[in-house]
Amino acid sequence: MDRVPVLKLGDILIVSIQIDLQDQSVLALQEDLADKVVATGARGVIIDITAVEIVDSFIGRMLATIAAISRMLDAETVVVGMRPAVAITLVELGLSLGGVRTALNLEKGVALLNHLEGSRIAAAVQ
Amino acid sequence: MGVTLSVPTDAGRRRIEELLQENEERVLKRWLEIAGSSSSSHVDRSSLAGQLRELYQALRQSLDGSGDSDLRGLLAELSRSRARQGFTPTETAVVVFGLKEALYESIETDGSPEALRGFIWFSQLIDDLGLLTMENYAAAREKVIIDQAEQLLELSTPVVKLWEGIVAVPLVGTLDSARTQVVMEKLLQTLVDTGSEHAVIDITGVPAVDTQVAQHLLKTVVAARLMGAECVISGIRPQIAHTIVTLGIEFGDIVTKASLADALAHALRESGVEFVSRKTRVAVRTEED
């Protein structure tokens, strides 16, 4: 079974999906990610799906589940690099990924997380 | 029964063939008159005469049994060229049906029962040829329409860059599923290629918005959102706003603006660009986060 690596960059975890996801690898990824978030105290998770060309409702649900798990552990999830064809397919499937933030690419995803962190601290100061 | 009928029909057919041969010049002249009078001014008399003579020869040949494809080919060519030149269906059909009337005069003079019986058979033949003509005419017209629709599709979907990180799609003309699909794909691809986080869909040039068009727009906006870009819909005219509300279409939390200028101002504000009026000149300052 292929395992998807979880990379740590500062207090952000980066997951880049480059393989055809099977049920087993998705479950393993969700466990790995939850462990890593707790272990590192990460405040943000970025899932890069630039290499994903085919999506179904299963992938859509996976993204929503990962976002929900991360939010429970106080980390924001950002999905980056979605291809136009993938976005259109998800819309046609009726999945709008509510609760998941999105960004055009990894760079903008990191910027978004930094911005969110900034406003969170600002809110705490007030 | 078949035998008793077939003998006179054959006789009639022979008589018609003879008449077509004997009165060739007379019938052709009358045919040209009928076909020429029904067609409007943009028809060239001499070329029409040439076409009719060719058709007449082909018809007689096909009656002799020496080749049928020639006649059909000629008719197809005639109807195709007429469809492209913008002749009406009636003008095209009368060219073929005119032969019936032209021949009928010769038959009246002849007056024999074989000729009259033969005319029924001949008129069926001409009807068949007329139908063939119309079929070709319609096919040619359809092809013109398909070609134009494709050209329109290619022409009508520019994505323009308004500012660094802001792109706009000015939509002109009626939106249908095929066009929206093209617009959607092009817009999303441009967002990826340019790394733009804001898009403006301007519907000033869209004559009417119904539930289907609104559905397409909403899908585009949601797809852009999934990719991490925000869409603003602008150029909503008062009548269209009225229609949308009357139809009960919910745009949810999608930002809509009355004009493209408002949408651009909104997108600039969102991306952190601030406008400051300084006396009469307008200066633009970018705020660094």
Automatic annotation (TrEMBL), chain A:
Domain (STAS) ranges: 2-113
One Pfam family hit: STAS
InterPro entries: Bact_StressResp_Reg, STAS_dom, STAS_dom_sf
Superkingdom of origin organism: Bacteria
PANTHER family from the UniProt entry: RSBT ANTAGONIST PROTEIN RSBS, RSBT ANTAGONIST PROTEIN RSBS-RELATED
Entry protein name: Anti-sigma factor antagonist
Lineage, broadest ranks: Bacteria, Bacillati, Actinomycetota, Actinomycetes, Streptosporangiales
